[in-house]
Amino acid sequence: MSLDWIYWAISWVLLLWHSAWDAVGVSENAVLGTNWSWILAIVFLVVTLRVVLFPIFVKQIKSQRAMQALQPQLKALQEKHKGDRETLQKEMMELYRKEKANPLMGCLPIFLQAPVFIGLFHVLRRLNPANGQKTLYGWTVEQFESATHARLFDVPIAAKFGSSPADLALLNANGTSVKILAGILVAIMIATTYLTSRQMILKTGWAEDPQQRMIQRLMLYGIPASLLVSGAIFPIGVVIYWVTNNLFTLGQQQWVLRKYPPPPTATTGRLPKPGESTPRRTTATGSRRSTDARNPVQPGKPAKPAGRFGRSKANGAQPEKPAVDTKALAPKPGAKPVNPKKGRPAKRQG
């Protein structure tokens, strides 16, 4: 199957954004050793893709929430049909259909972004002064020459960490500068790829299903590790795209996870077992327990009165004395005066 339509689409969006930034006055000349019109064109290629995929991303989050809510029922089906895999799969599919949950929805945004990445990789890899097909995919000769010599901090965006000396000579690039900048960008790419996966897993929790848990581990550790090797063959322009995409994903996931929070038990990484009490919630500080927890009231014993400012007597504060009602002690009108000395034996005169 030919992927030319992807290359045409990526080239069209990239050239459109480059023309837009050129129209608003972003200079073609290098500023701080950077041709910002091409760098911004790559950045806004990411923005265009993420805006188009945003509704699908929201559906992905909703599907994950539905899958988490179904975990107790799925576990019950696994216990009920243990050893009968065919019946189990049939019952699970029926449950997914009834609850409108799709376990494959979580991978859909990645599958849709993959063709864009492949297309951009192919288009930027062609940026070589020795390339004779400069007008392929809708490019003009002037646009091709401009992109070929576009730089980020004096390093061509068409160069890569593993560029050969011959390729560096054609691009008029310094090998040391290319390796330093490419190494920094690849390290950022690996770190942000790990953080995007970690952010999602920490918010949604580890899956109960062993296969889904294995996929989560692959996303968390496997893909960042693979970038350590594959990053050496990526042109710097592709690494810029990947880093921008990761940063956009971090912000987008944070917003969506706040709007569609996971179930309360998902933050523990697993669902509570039957009969298991839920974890004790902490106060706003996250570490201090309440006063009642520090001084529990034992059965049959009255609670210790708290002193002024909440301090107990053991802390040195004296308990407050009960107020005396002076009106209750005053004699009523018309009552005979009471002689407090009456009834006492008189003192004998000497």
In short:
With 350 residues, the protein is mostly helical.
Summarize this structure as a short list of keywords or feature phrases.
two-stranded antiparallel ribbon, 350 residues, mainly alpha
Overview of this protein structure:
The termini are far apart. 55% of the residues lie in helices and 1% in strands. The chain is mainly alpha-helical. It is elongated and about 65 Å long. It has a two-stranded antiparallel sheet with strand order 1-2. The longest helix has 34 residues, at 36-69. The protein has helices at residues 4-23, 36-69, 71-80, 85-99, 108-125, 141-148, 165-170, 175-204, 210-230, 236-259, 291-294, 326-329; strands spanning 151-152, 155-156.
Blueprint (SSEs and pairs):
Blueprint: H1 4-23, H2 36-69, H3 71-80, H4 85-99, H5 108-125, H6 141-148, E1 151-152, E2 155-156, H7 165-170, H8 175-204, H9 210-230, H10 236-259, H11 291-294, H12 326-329
Antiparallel strand pairs: 1-2
Helix pairs in contact: 1-2, 1-5, 2-5, 2-10, 3-4, 5-10, 8-9, 8-10
- The pLDDT mean sits at 75
* Count of β-strands: 2
Point out poorly predicted stretches: 265-297, 305-317
Biggest sheet statistics: 2 strands, antiparallel
- Total helices: the number is 12
Strand order of the largest sheet: 1-2
Radius of gyration using CA atoms only: 36 Å
Task: Assign an overall shape.
Answer: elongated
Q: How much beta, percentage-wise?
A: under 5%
Order of H and E elements: HHHHHHEEHHHHHH
Relative helix content:
55-70%
Distance from first to last alpha carbon: 135 Å
Could you say which structural class the secondary elements and strand pairing correspond to?
mainly alpha
